[in-house]
Write a structure and sequence with these properties.
The chain has 558 residues and is an alpha/beta fold. The protein has 16 helices and 18 strands. It folds into 2 domains: 6-309, Rossmann fold (3-Layer(aba) Sandwich), CATH 3.40.50; 321-557, Alpha/Beta hydrolase fold, catalytic domain (Rossmann fold), CATH 3.40.50.1820. Helix 11 (350-361) crosses helix 13 and helix 11 packs across helix 14 (394-421). The mean pLDDT is 92. This is Carboxylesterase type B domain-containing protein. It comes from Panagrolaimus sp. ES5.
Length: 558
């Protein structure tokens, strides 16, 4: 019987598990390693602190508890004491002496949901670790526990981001014990995790903690870093607890209440917090606070970031499919424009599309007498430029494309060009392979998160991506791109070298049944949104007034 792996670290001995993939690859698994003291009691709404060393062997044989999520029902065992990470590594023989590059994954979930546990370890060992890498997944504080803020220095927020930084610092200390190369760490994340990955490159607090980054379907230049609801929802939490939000004793009072009381407080306004049909999709999130992130808007940070770290950015071809149709029917709240009930799909016509633009985007509080001209410009652009294949609902496709552009595409494209202009090495991919297992009946495109099973366990209720046949070839090519980039910053797969993004163009690799290098990704869209911001003085993708960038114009909508 094979003995369990034991690793001596600066914090004590860690005892893991052995794991063998169906292909016979042997890995060692370490689950639920605490990387910080529990952020409870007086440590609530504080930056994470180094964990206490353990005196006996730490049994790392099960995932740590997830963070408390919202809605709470997703992980009923969510806990404030959630700051753990998981480490998966190849089983190393005595004669092997090379150190392993490391990839650190940051999960998504809109900064209110998700955990490292849901991504498992079986598929990531097959699809990434087997290439000779260490892969780490981690938890961070979510919702009000991670992002509650007074909007000033009293309770500045960003605790979930500080958790990620503490995990990276902890890894610098323990990676050598696992034969990991602490100087060769790549961070990657998806959606909210992609935005966090992007943000982590913009603060001096992460200097020397990683070598390169891969933000997937998330950008620091999205309006979520200029979130108008963040202080409002923090205030709602305090008021639901009977605490004066303006009190100088706010911090002292709020650490006295239990986690269950905070959960109940948030439950009282979840319908308000998770409203469908709003342009801003994220309501608890990071913020430019003047401490962790020094300047606003985030574009200034990109221009002054550490350009020595290469970055690989990417999107899928229709991100907002995930938000278009309500998959739960009557079990969840449906909207007119987002999470549309399946029975309502035939009613999504030109009027419905135009209503979204005029009522949600072309707000008179922002655009005044120019609101109609703004709406006309948006409607005309999408009617002219969106192509619909087969007999899919044309206006549903247009609506979904618009939501994809505002929330994902334009921020990512701008970020790529801004980084290139600052002298950073930037590469870009577009994942377009439609796996029949995940295809929506309403769209001929790839949805937000459909690419993640190329690396991890598929979400509950969905089948895993097989490593054979057509989907296996796509998975192999996509994983090879990430593995090569993580090893040495070389963005290439199957013999194809990705060209560098320039300030003028975004050449990219299309990940599909056939790999293609294309010249420039969606130039007409980024040009349209840039001109729209210039002409009308406000930019929806970033949430920033181009006339008065220091102002949070979106606050006026509430």
């Amino acid at each position: 019987m094979t003995s369990l792996p034991l690793v001596e670290t600066p914090y004590g001995v860690i005892e893991g598990l052995n794991h063998e993939t169906p292909e016979g690859f042997e890995a060692e698994i370490f689950l639920g390693i605490p990387f910080a003291k529990p952020p409870i009691n007086e440590l609530r709404f504080e930056k994470p602190q180094l964990p206490t060393k353990w005196k006996t062997s730490l049994k790392a044989d099960k995932f740590g508890k997830p963070a408390i999520t919202f809605p709470v029902r997703k992980f009923k065992d969510g806990d404030e004491d959630c700051l753990t990470l998981n480490l998966f590594k190849p089983k190393k023989t005595d004669e092997e002496c090379n150190l392993f590059p490391t990839m650190v994954y940051i999960h998504g979930g809109g900064f209110v949901s998700g955990s490292s546990r849901e991504w498992g370890y079986k598929e990531v060992c097959r699809k990434l670790v087997s290439h000779g890498l260490i892969v780490v997944t981690l938890n961070y504080r979510l919702g009000p526990f991670g992002f509650f803020t007074t909007g000033d220095g009293n309770i500045p927020g960003n605790y979930g981001i500080w958790d990620m930084i503490q995990a990276l610092k902890f890894l610098q200390e323990i990676l050598p014990s696992f034969n990991g190369d602490a100087s060769n760490v790549t961070i990657f994340g998806h959606s909210a995790g992609g935005m966090a990955t992007s943000l982590l490159t913009l603060t001096p607090e992460t200097k020397n903690l990683f070598a390169r980054a891969i933000p997937m379907s998330g950008s620091a230049l999205s309006k979520s870093s200029n979130n108008p609801f963040l202080v409002k929802h923090s205030k709602m939490v305090a008021e639901a607890l009977g605490i004066d939000f303006s009190s100088l004793r706010l911090r002292d009072e709020i650490i006295e209440v239990s986690a269950d009381q905070i959960k109940e407080a948030v439950k009282s306004f979840i319908p308000e917090m998770l409203r469908v049909d709003e342009v801003v999709l994220v309501h608890f999130s990071p913020r430019i606070d003047g401490d962790l992130f020094k300047e606003k808007p985030a574009t200034n940070l990109v221009c002054k970031s550490d350009v020595s770290k290469p970055i690989l950015m990417g999107l899928v071809d229709q991100e907002a499919i995930l938000f278009a149709v309500n998959p739960f029917g009557k079990l969840a709240t449906s909207g007119k424009y987002i999470w549309i009930h399946p029975d309502d799909i035939p009613n999504v016509d030109k009027t419905r599309f135009s209503d979204y633009v005029t009522q949600k985007l072309a707000d008179k509080k922002i655009f005044g007498s120019s609101a109609k001209d703004y709406a006309d410009a948006v409607i005309n652009f999408y009617e002219t430029n969106v192509k619909v294949s087969n007999n899919n609902n044309r206006y549903l496709t247009m609506l979904t494309q618009l939501i994809s552009d505002v929330n994902f595409n334009i921020p990512a494209l701008r970020e790529a060009k801004s980084r290139a202009a600052a002298g950073q090495k930037v590469y870009f991919y577009l994942y377009t392979y439609i796996n029949p297992k995940y295809k929506s009946q309403y769209f001929d495109a790839v949805a937000h998160a459909d690419e993640l099973p190329c690396f991890f366990d598929a979400p509950v209720g969905k089948p895993n991506v097989e490593m054979k046949g057509e989907e296996g070839e796509v998975q192999k090519s996509f994983a090879e791109l990430f593995v090569n980039f993580a090893r040495n910053g070389n963005a290439q797969t199957q013999g194809l070298q990705l060209p560098l993004v320039t300030p003028e163009n975004i050449p990219y690799i299309k990940i599909d049944k056939e790999l293609l290098i294309e010249n420039d990704l969606w130039p007409e869209r980024i040009n349209f949104w840039n001109k729209l911001a210039e002409d009308f003085g406000f930019d929806w993708p970033s949430g920033v007034s181009t006339k008065h960038p220091e102002k949070n114009v979106l606050m006026d909508l509430e």
